[in-house]
Amino acid sequence: MTQTSIIGWERDGDIVVLTIDDPAASANTMSDEFFGSLTATIDRLEEERESVRGVVLTSAKKTFFAGGNLDDLIATTPQDGPRWVESCNSVKRQLRRLETLGIPVVSAINGAALGGGLELALATHHRIACAQGVVVGLPEVGLGLLPAAGGIVRTVRLLGLQRALSDVLLSGKRFRPREALELGLVHEVVPSVEDLVPTAKAWLETDPDPVQPWDVKGYTIPGGTPADPAVAAHLPLLTAQLRAKSKGAPAPAPLAILAAAVEGAQVDFDSAGLIETRYFVPLVTGQIAKNMIQSAFFDIQTVQSGASRPAVGTKYKAKKVGILGAGMMGAALAYVCARAGLEVVLKDLTLAAAARGKGYAEALEAKAVARGATTAEKSAQLLHRITATASREDFAGVDFVVEAVFEDAALKQRVFQEIQDIVEPNAVLGSNTSTLPITELAEGVHRQQDFIGIHFFSPVDKMPLVEIITGKNTAPETLAKVFDFTQQIGKVPIVVNDSRGFFTSRVIMTFLDEAVAAVGEGVDPAIIEQAGAQAGYPAPPLQLLDELTLTLPRKIRHEKRIALEAAGGAWTAHGSEAVADKMIDEFARPGRSSGRGFYDYDKAGKRLGLWSGLRDAFAAGSATIPFRDLQERMLFAEAIETVRCFDEGVLTSVADANIGSLYGIGFPAWTGGVMQYINGYDGGLPGFVARARELEERYGARFTPPESLVAKAALGESYR
Ligand code: NAI
């Protein structure tokens, strides 16, 4: 009889309390040691079954059980397939033993039970969650995986195919205890952690039957199996919905989940488990899951932990934020800051304009009150924190300035000059410019060390990313303050050095340029849009460009050209330029805001269809290039431009590049971010370089792989 270190065994009369506590880790995860411990614990329960009335399973860690070990998952290679088959099936066998021992087992869920944590709890007969600090769910789909410790088999049998799939397995949603109770994932919710074990014991006192619903004689899957005509009729719809959602982009996990659930619902419990494993192995040994785990866990953690924050000063908290310009960005930013508890002064040219800006917060709050998401009192307090003004004197006491006036360098400098002597002596002076070089803007203020770029994304209340741009003279203390401020308002900061377009705007332009150039080459625009969507971009390129308007990239390009030529450089025209010029100057179709762009729009701004005139204007449809080339021109253009950003010192952190590209500019999620795309490309860096050379040969020097990349590839390294 082993008493293992991971699952503690404590007897209280005829009840055994098992406490999971991995001393070697901060969270309980699936490891060989845990598995050994689980097996030994079940052996012991079997031996002592005569004297055990029931079992309580709980955890000594903050999380109940975290599931798969991420380091292990990310290091998996295709050769590990057989090992995964063996380990998934062994875990399933042990969990099956636990639920069929003939002893009632209750999970006392004291913290997050996500993925493997919930799968473990689902193999027990009763689940009690604490109302505080608990979330449950099967988020594997978001990591390109599926729950492979019986999660699909059990949720389908517990909730029925339809609900298990839409609510839990395909949504990857994390449920709070009350929601989990409503859904049927847990049976009871108790107010506090202290209530868990006593409530579990009380349940055991009722002498419950130690039988899972699916092991009761005569059990049928709720809602029916795929053999039932009603279910069968609904299933093709699910497949169609998944395909519509992915728009043809690589998304193997949802389809694998659907198949494992449907096939598993037609066979016995154990066979369903084997099917689940069979669908899991290609996912776990494939590249997409590794990409998604890398970004969703490792890179985001690196970014959030402050790896790019200089280690100066204590943690900063802004008190009073002054926002210059109450337009689209300023108004939304005022709302986000007030929501985070900050005092906000929102200034525009006139009081009426500033008040209109505040109206953004008022409208959103009114909606939140109406749907019960906040109270009228809290909402009034929030709105009270925003002072709309046209007077610079109201900037007295401001310790953090964000400027969001029109994109005009002279105007930006002027508005800073107006307030720089009124705000606190060392207030941060931040500009939300999306393209203007920070160092040049800083030249307009006395305190260049306090000047910095803080680039938000629209809509500010929804987009999590903030790109912080340091100018030549920005002090490390200023950067540290801004980093802390972005976290204070609940955003994700990445840090880049000054450059025209910084990182995000500069890189996204290369994606759009490829699409526009292809129009000029005579490719059918519908195919171009399809290529973007199937590559996994959230919005097809021409559609996105219409939103931005074609004039904006032209202005940026023009400024870039002037700067380059002033520095003695020679400008190489991109194929997109002539197309954009023609669209703007000849056809007066600059984009959606004017009702005409690559697409037609109705009076209300609703997109109708691609402009039929494109065919005559650009011989569109007269040329075909391989579909894969079209997709990879977009992906490679962005990836290569990002490498150039590293070469020029604009970027210094791979995690920042990955997270910035995913959160800021819609680089396809399955890639794990723009640098991870290079790492994970078929054949690794050498494979990427070889393919870049092919594209270079076919489409031009912009695809020439940068020397630093070629050198890294030759060394067998990847971007870390
Ligand atoms: P907007 O045109 O909606 O708002 C600009 C506001 O500044 C207007 O309300 C205008 O009255 C005000 N303004 C002009 N002169 C002023 C002065 N002297 N004092 C006070 N207010 C003055 O522009 P939007 O879209 O909000 O953009 C603002 C800045 O944010 C620009 O630099 C833009 O490049 C940048 N940005 C915009 C993004 C977007 O998606 N629209 C994304 C990221 C950055």
From TrEMBL:
InterPro entries given in the database record: 3-OHacyl-CoA_DH_NAD-bd (IPR006176), 3HC_DH_C (IPR006108), 6-PGluconate_DH-like_C_sf (IPR008927), ClpP/crotonase-like_dom_sf (IPR029045), Enoyl-CoA_hydra/iso (IPR001753), FA_oxidation_alpha_subunit (IPR050136), NAD(P)-bd_dom_sf (IPR036291)
A family per Pfam: ECH_1
Pathway per the UniProt entry: Lipid metabolism; butanoate metabolism; Lipid metabolism; fatty acid beta-oxidation
3-hydroxyacyl-CoA dehydrogenase NAD binding domain sequence ranges: 320-498
GO MF, one annotated term: NAD+ binding
Coiled coil: none
GO biological process: fatty acid beta-oxidation
Domain 3-hydroxyacyl-CoA dehydrogenase C-terminal: 501-601
Catalytic activity: a (3S)-3-hydroxyacyl-CoA + NAD(+) = a 3-oxoacyl-CoA + NADH + H(+)
Keywords, ordered alphabetically: Fatty acid metabolism, Lipid degradation, Lipid metabolism, Lyase, Multifunctional enzyme, NAD, Oxidoreductase
Record-stated family: In the central section; belongs to the 3-hydroxyacyl-CoA dehydrogenase family. Belongs to the 3-hydroxyacyl-CoA dehydrogenase family.
Protein name: 3-hydroxyacyl-CoA dehydrogenase
Organism placement in taxonomy: Bacteria, Bacillati, Actinomycetota, Actinomycetes, Mycobacteriales
